[in-house]
Design brief:
Blueprint (H helix, E strand, L loop, with lengths): L1 E2 L2 E3 L2 E3 L4 E6 L4 E7 L3 H18 L4 H17 L1 H12 L3 H18 L7 E5 L3 E9 L2 E5 L5 H15 L2 E5 L6 H10 L8 E3 L6 H7 L5 E5 L2 H11 L5 E5 L5 E4 L5 H13 L11 E5 H15 L3 E2 L7 E3 L5 H16 L3 E4 L15 E4 L6 H4 L6 E7 L2 H9 L3 E2 L1 E5 L3 H8 L6 E4 L14 E2 L2 E2 L4 H6 L2 E9 L5
Helix pairs in contact: 2-4, 2-5, 3-4, 3-6, 4-5, 9-10
């Protein structure tokens, strides 16, 4: 077992108080991290505030070089990092590799983003231009499902925009992020990136801290509402990427054999612990029986187990609280007599937070397993008759994060996509996010954007400077 330290003002430090981090595959302690409170937060914020004075003045080229150094440090140590990620998060090695290399790629790509001045007026009377200025010290709060990707998703645009950041990883999955902190300690100027760990009470301290100017948060809608409340005291800028109950719509012309495997992984990647996973799969009645059977058959070929073991396709739920919630939803479905195509029973071993791959056969629309975000390896398959009907059902949710349409007729797919009340819709694929395209939710899936120029703007204010050319002074 290793002790991992925090990054504050360019130094790796601890406070002598520790939190245990468990491997969800076997419930064994795999590392310890500092249990921080107000004192450590104040030190980190003060360091970020000092560093901001100089960092905001750096050139775009200087910022790009630093961020590219972060990308290189992650990529060069990917083999170590993905194994550590699996040990604390539970996802299979192949998926952990994707996250680590994806984080490095995201950093490299976003280092190229720029926010150019916009000329509003340029004539004999005046020159008016809008520039983007950094918002200041950022507080970043990261979830446990993609801890590395989400950390980079907050650190990089903050730095590129000229901000500094204090980042809090989830207490369930802080190890890989702190190892990256150690790797980049001498890459980033002291104080520009500070990473501190602590239990859940540290989050509200960050949200309410008077010397933090912006909060960027990824997590549940319920917590997002609390963050809005906490940030309201001094009108902090906020970006919230919250929950989703994402619908996939499969039209009758879809190829059953080709689509079955893709639909499976659109729901079960990372054991279903993905905000943009397909959590409701609507299948046209003409192909429902064949496609539901094909998905259930494919599920039998996927191994549920320890992510560090070769051949594992679906790992454990990351933590006990979420494990219990997923089991509760499954039990509710059983109590209501809904039909299961696969799964429905708890793993008998008793060790590790394993939930069997669970696929339900056409439960009612108001079932909890349909109406609520499962965030686990559970897929309700739902039958529909008409396009208008399925659009209405898909939109009948408090969430609006993402969705997908599967069809040979891409024009029809786009027509349906344009009627879905979500921030992102894919045609014939799933979970594709580009570093250059904005990503954000509608309704209670949050507001603001991440990725792309729109995401970068979230870390800035617009400032208009106007020069009167014919002024007499």
């Amino acid at each position: 077992m290793t002790d991992y330290k925090n990054l504050i003002d360019g130094e790796m430090v601890d406070n002598g108080e520790w939190l245990d981090v468990l491997n969800p595959a076997n419930e064994q302690v795999v590392g310890r991290v500092p249990a921080c409170g107000k004192d450590e937060l104040d030190r980190a914020v003060a360091a970020a505030r000092r560093a901001f004075k100089d960092w905001r003045k750096t050139s775009q080229e200087e910022r790009q070089k630093v961020v590219q150094g972060i990308a290189a440090a992650i990529k060069d140590n990917a083999d170590e990092l993905f194994r550590l990620l699996t040990s604390e998060q539970g996802k299979p090695h192949a998926q952990a590799q994707q996250e680590i290399y994806g984080a490095a790629g995201l950093a490299a790509a976003q280092s190229t983003l720029t926010l150019d001045d916009v000329v509003n007026q340029d004539d004999d009377q005046r020159l008016s231009r809008t520039r983007r200025v950094p918002v200041g010290v950022v507080g970043g709060i990261v979830p446990w499902n993609f801890p590395v990707m989400m950390a980079i998703q907050k650190i990089v645009p903050a730095l590129v925009a000229g901000c500094t950041i204090v980042l809090k990883p989830s207490p369930f999955t802080p190890l890989t992020t702190l190892r990256i902190a150690e790797l980049i300690k001498d890459v980033v100027p002291a104080g520009t990136v500070n990473i501190i760990t602590g239990e859940d009470h540290l989050g509200p301290m960050i949200t309410e801290h008077p010397d933090i100017d912006k909060i960027t948060f990824t997590g549940s809608t319920a917590t997002g509402k609390k963050i809005m409340e906490g940030a309201s005291g001094d009108l902090k800028r906020i970006t919230l990427e919250l929950g989703g109950n994402d619908a996939s719509i499969v039209l009758p012309d879809a190829d059953v054999e080709k689509v079955a495997e893709q639909l499976f992984w659109s729901s079960f990647s990372n054991a279903g612990q993905v905000c943009i996973a397909a959590k409701r799969v609507y299948i046209h009645k003409d192909i429902y029986d064949d496609l539901s059977k094909a998905i259930a058959e494919y599920a039998k070929s996927v191994v549920v187990g320890d992510g560090s073991q070769q051949g594992t396709g679906v790992g454990p739920i990351q933590n006990k609280k979420q494990y219990d919630r997923v089991l509760e939803l499954i039990q509710d479905a059983k109590d209501n007599g809904y039909k299961f195509l696969t799964g429905g029973d708890k793993d008998p071993s008793g060790t590790g937070y394993y939930v069997p791959i669970t696929i339900l056969d056409n439960p009612p629309e108001d079932a909890r397993i349909v109406a609520e975000e499962q965030f686990g390896p559970v897929m309700p398959l739902l039958k529909f008759d008409s396009i208008d009907e399925v659009i209405e059902r898909a939109n009948n949710s408090e969430y609006g994060l993402a969705g997908a349409v599967w069809t040979k007729d891409t024009d029809k797919g786009v027509e349906i996509a344009e009627q879905l009340e979500t921030g992102t819709v894919w045609i014939n694929e799933f979970m594709h996010l580009s570093p250059f395209s904005p990503f954000g939710g509608h309704k209670q899936s949050g507001f603001g954007a991440e990725y792309g120029v729109d995401g970068l703007k979230e870390f800035t204010y617009p400032q208009v400077i106007t020069v009167k050319r014919d002024a007499v002074v």
